[in-house]
Amino acid sequence: MTLINVFNRLRLLIRWMVEMRYTRFADLDRDAMERFLVTVAERTGRKGKPLAPTTNDQYARLPLTLYQQRNKLPDAPCEHLYGGEGVSPRTGFQAAHNPLPHTPDAIAVPLISAALRLIRQPAEDVIALRDRVQRTYQDGLDQSWQHHTARRAACAAARTFEFATLDNEESPWHAPAVSTKRVRFLVERIYDACFVIIAYFVGARVSEIISLEVGCIERRASADGSETFAYLGGRIYKTAPDPDGDPHRWVAPAPVVRAVEVLELLSEPLRRRAGRPELWLGMPGHGIVESRAVEVPSVAHGISLRTRAARPLPVSSAAGIAPACTPCKPTTAMSAAS
């Protein structure tokens, strides 16, 4: 039905263009749009009544959509048809404000607490474990070992790794990893924790989070030079006129700065292999010693990965954190190693 509605609106636009002797969408400009909106406003519905504001708004947005997709179309408007302003003031349409329900405290508090815990010493442990396992595997291959022999050595290296005992706890925060798949699981949970921190403390969208690159933390001095503030530098894609998005900075509190530091360490081997700057690169397969090409996940892939992040974060009840803190189905998502 949506496709049919778009076609009907496009048909009206084309008929109007023919009547006004426009031969290409590229000929449309702001003056043309003002005249087109007057024509739309003069139309009536089946019962002879003026069109609803929402209908007028849909007609007005169609040419703007053509402009926003101009890099993908052989013929499209060459300029923003409303001077960079919104459509609603011209059509009188105001969208209903139906905010999504907030995450209940019973879920948000354990989730964020667990994430804060994981990006500290546990993240250091997991990165060290990952590096040990991958180094052992590569050393075996360098000695001309068979693939399965090098993998067994990597698994043995994982089993002998000792996780740290955190403050106010009596035992290591995690039991020995018994396989490279378990190491991969822990790496993914650290990615999860970093995403939770960025999403909750900054509020960026999924497209903005998975496009973050190494070095995205910027530090700027205050006007009088007495303080230094950290910012998260990225790009906003929603409503941006260019597919590369608009540059944007968010204030980055200390947990976000730490999460980015962890992401840079986590992604360093993949960035080196792929020659890419993104922090959210993926490794195919299920283990941690894969040699296949690095993946650059899309937004849709990030959503599919992180909506399945109902897996509990590996936390300890000894730390006063619920061990099974299953998050709500997120509206933003991250794209990490899958």
| Poorly predicted residue ranges | 315-338
Question: What's the number of domains?
Answer: 2
Rounded to an integer in angstroms, the radius of gyration calculated over CA atoms is: 26 Å
Number of strands: 3
- Overall 3D form: elongated
Overall pLDDT level: 83
Structural class: mainly alpha
* Count of helical regions: 11
What fraction, in percent, of the residue positions are helical? Answer: 40-55%
Q: Tell me about the biggest sheet?
A: 3 strands, antiparallel
Distance between the termini: 35 Å
Query: What's the helix-strand series?
Result: HHHHHHHHHEEEHH
> What's the arrangement of strands in the largest beta sheet?
1-2-3
Beta-strand residue fraction: 5-15%
List the helices and strands and how they pair.
Elements: H1 2-19, H2 30-41, H3 53-68, H4 88-91, H5 105-118, H6 121-142, H7 147-159, H8 180-202, H9 206-210, E1 217-221, E2 228-236, E3 246-251, H10 254-274, H11 299-307
Antiparallel strand pairs: 1-2, 2-3
Helix pairs in contact: 1-3, 2-3, 5-8, 6-7, 6-8, 8-10
Structural notes for this entry:
With 338 residues, this protein is mainly alpha-helical. It folds into 2 domains: 2-91, no CATH class; 106-319, no CATH class. It is built from 11 helices and 3 strands. It has helices spanning 2-19, 30-41, 53-68, 88-91, 105-118, 121-142, 147-159, 180-202, 206-210, 254-274, 299-307; strands at residues 217-221, 228-236, 246-251. It has a 3-stranded antiparallel beta sheet. Helix 5 (105-118) crosses helix 8 (180-202) and helix 6 runs antiparallel to helix 7 (147-159). The relative contact order is 0.11. Mean pLDDT is 83; it is low at 315-338.
